[in-house]
Amino acid sequence: MTKVLTILGARPQFVKGAVLSRAISKNDHIQEVIVHTGQHFDQKMSDIFFEEMNIPSPDYNLNINSLSHGAMTGRMIEGIEEVILKEKPDALMVYGDTNSTIAGALAAKKLDIKVAHVEAGLRSFNMKMPEEINRILTDRISDLLLCPTQTAIDNLRKEGFDHIAAKIVLTGDIMFDAALYYAKLAQQKSTIIEDLDLSNKDFVLCTVHRQENTDDKNKLASIIQALNEINENTPVVFPLHPRTKKLLQQYNITCHCSIIDPVGYFDMIQLLKRARLVVTDSGGLQKEAYYFQKNSITLREQTEWVELIKNSYSMLTGSDIAKIREAYTIMMSKPTPEIRKELFGDGHSADIMMEALLKI
Ligand code: UD1
To answer: Residues 140-171: pLDDT tens digits?
Structure first.
């Protein structure tokens, strides 16, 4: 029996974790212990995902949030270390690029516990992003690198990972598994389209939360001005992340879009299915737009998911208002994308991950 300690902390990790937890629960050879770091903590950013997606309740909740990067990461390392010493797992699994990810990997590696990293090898090549730092460091100390794309594998090879004693596996994107599996349930359970009276309307779906866009007042103002303009033509539905909400108030920036609270995964799927276009700085939503065959505008200077740009399913604009305007015009008149399995796998990445985990 392999005992795996899974570290979850932020919204996208709950979505990815749900898929793998379901696969693990069906396999008699693996046991999972879940640690929630507490990084995302309120009903709409955390609990709703556990409820809707049937994720087993965390065995531990460290309740660490709303701190500076150093304090948050440091306290998480301390908390996770304690759990590892108590649970003595065979491996620790981390997802993505958050402070919870690097904290888990560091705590485990220093105790000589094998680390598996889901979404290994992704790079934006922007070292100003906290996420890029978290990814690079996590990859370097992981034993099992579960890569969602061939680009991710190529990135690791270029960084010399062929000479590092770590196993690299091409898995496909676990968020594609999630999109396929939960789409039917979302259809049955979510009423958001009716609630927001969007049934017969064209609308743009937007999210903004990245530090690089929200912390700088001018950049945030430019993005919001662009969204206000788009909203004059096509209503913009904007589930507002708490970080962005706080900073809009602090900077006194007025947004005329249809602002709603953060939504759960089922509501997000329904919004994605019906949206005309997606505008986002989220790594996950860029791809989810594609999985629901929507074009997108990526409010970043670079992306880890270069396949979307190369195939013209998305355009990179950063926070530049002229670029966002231009991308809006182009993307609104483009045909919707076709799903190509060679880009992000066939929706069975959890099976590949399980097989690799059993051999760790
Ligand atoms: C984090 C991750 C980012 C990921 C994102 C997903 C890092 C460095 N960043 O960014 O990679 O894409 O999660 O959403 O780990 N807050 C609440 N309620 C919550 C959660 C957060 O009010 O449930 C507030 C916090 O108090 C904080 C702000 O939102 O003031 C930002 O939260 P934080 O965890 O620092 O990072 P995110 O921007 O969510």
So the answer is: 999 999 999 999 999 999 999 999 999 999 99
pTM above 0.90, yes or no: yes
Query: Does 280 contact ligand 1 (Cβ within 6 A)?
Result: no
CA geometry: angle 313, 149, 346, nearest 5 deg: 80
Tally of CB atoms within 10 A around 155: 22
Give CA torsion, residues 339, 341, 345, 347, to 10 deg: 60
Q: Is 348 a catalytic residue?
A: no
Look up residue 50 and give its two tokens: 């556990």
For the Cβ of 209 lying below 6 angstroms from any atom of ligand 1, the answer is yes
Return the bridge partners of 277, or none: 204
Residue 21, CA distances (Å) to 13, 33, 294 in order = 12, 10, 28
Find the 243 Cα to ligand 1 centroid distance in Å. 7
Kindly state if the Cβ of 98 falls inside 6 Å of ligand 1.
Answer: yes
36, 40, 117, 209: which is the annotated catalytic residue?
A: 209
